[in-house]
Amino acid sequence: MSNDTSTSTTSSVLAPATLHERLQRAVGEAVVGQEAVVTQLTTALLAGGHVLLEGAPGVAKTTIATRVAAAAGLPAKRIQLTPDVLPADITGTQLYNEQEGAFEFRRGPVFSNAVIADEINRAMPKAQAALLEAMEEGRVSVDGETHSLPSPFFVVATQNPLDMAGTYPLPESQLDRFMFHLTVSAPSSDDALVDILTTADERERDDKRRRQASPYTLTPEAIHSARGLVNAIHVSAPIKQYLVALMRSLETDSRAAAAPSPRALIGVQRAAKARAAIERRAYVIPEDIKRVAIDALCHRLTIEQAPRGDTEAARELLGETLDATAVPTMVSAPASDTPLATDGGE
Hints:
Layout: H1 5-11, H2 16-28, H3 35-47, E1 51-54, H4 61-71, E2 76-80, H5 87-91, E3 92-97, E4 102-107, E5 114-118, H6 125-137, E6 139-142, E7 145-148, E8 154-159, H7 172-175, E9 180-183, H8 190-213, H9 220-231, H10 237-252, E10 256-258, H11 262-278, H12 286-297, E11 302-303, H13 311-324
Parallel strand pairs: 1-8, 1-9, 2-5, 5-8
Antiparallel strand pairs: 3-4, 6-7, 10-11
């Protein structure tokens, strides 16, 4: 057997569960008590979605995003968004090359496999919108020319709570580009806070040791291979009917001013397939839907008389709707020749 572990990793198929374990380990080395957030980030990465992380300053939102991108083997760029950031600062611009006597396109930081958009709601709407086409289409248009972005393309944006000074709420069209809206908060227990202090004290020394001991490095191709297994996850007719029933319940609830769109429903299905793959299962069950639906729909659901951007009221309504919607009792298994979520290198 070859000793070149990096070669063997890129040439084999990466099991989604293996990716999840790797990301949990990488983030856990630097951040305490955010396992649920990392699981949803892994789910979105496997499902081809993007994630919005909300929380007060200092709760490790950027650290989590940076660690996930690095552990997944995705070249990453971080964009610090402020009110004076222009769209061209994100996408790039045409500059005149005097030696060539012609204009050439200088790519912006969005041209990376992973983009960490820090404090996205501190940017003006024009700068926020610069990411919209990139997140939906995987490309950007500058001066009438279209430029494709690297694949896979994964955006993790952080934002401060909307009641903080200097924030600009994201429009509904921008929010709809995020598969998940996740809340990151500091652990409440004293023991957890002591663990945070200990982790911070030891991080620099341990980071150097772990980099030297790392057995292999993932690549964007490995993420593609894991996504291939996720795409093969089976979704039975009863599960699809269950999803439709959830949406219909939200449409008829008087507390919901606007229900999620069919595109949001597709996002829930994709996320549920990724969650099934993480659980080493080749088909989706109702529990997979429940594990992803609230984070996938809370930012796409408008609640009557609730402040704009208030996801807590939406989360409460979604939880009640999930509890009240009948769960299918019979879920068919996939055909015997369907690739399993556990296929690939462990």
